[in-house]
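Operator note (shift B, R.M.): manual run for tRNA (cytidine/uridine-2'-O-)-methyltransferase TrmJ requested after the automated queue skipped it. Running by hand, logging everything below so the morning shift can see what happened. Input copied straight from the record, untouched. If output looks odd, do not overwrite the archive copy; leave it for review.
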Amino acid sequence: MTQQNPANTSAECLSRIRVVLSHTSHPGNIGSTARAMKTMGINKLYLINPKEFPSETATALASNADDVLNTAIVVGSMEEALAGTTLQIALTARRRELAHPLQTPRQLAPEIIETIQAGQDIALVFGTEMSGLTIDEVLLCNRMATIPTNPDYSSLNLAQAVQVFAYEIFATLADDVSYLAESRDNATHDALEHFFTHLEATLSTIGFLKPDAPKRLMPRMRRMFTRANLEREEVDILRGWLRATTTTERWLKPPK
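Run finished. Output pasted below as returned.
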């Protein structure tokens, strides 16, 4: 049975997430944010009074996330950006008075997943590059988040912050990455047995294995190669190497 890509099965849930950027001053940050969003399957971008948009700089830094930019919604207020959402998460690096307790993206991820799986929309809200969100903007949100960083250097740019938050959501929603694993054509039992027979004969020929005093060499070699979980092609390579060892004269000459 073909395994589904979790990124596909979670697409509908991720479509419930909107990233809101408030008063972004540099268009490059909008493009980089679009790229960060697309890598995590999020495509709804809301821009509150951006200084410059559309922009060639934004498009260049989006790195083929043009679809996110092309469908971005530009609004004039935070109220418009949050309309229709039931969970609004303000990202801030500072403690705010009269606001909700600070949580990390990882702590909030389960609630976010529960909300979007229930078919409700959420907003991840980010402020300006220099000063972040205003107190009034934070008060329009019902959750507050911060990204733990080095206390001596806590500088994250806008797109990095979006990437971290989006990753925590995506990883919680689709934590199975087995679909990325390369398919293996493992060696059969009989192929391995032929290899071990060939290996023992070769080691005897070159004098590494003493037939009259084998000790535990072959059991250890067997355990080592069995632990490697060899593929069919790898066994073929090893047997080719064994053939070359006993048929090429230079292999039989002792080192000078």
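Quick read of the result: The first strand starts at residue 17 and ends at 22. DSSP finds 13 helices and seven strands in the chain.
Leaving this for review. - R.M.
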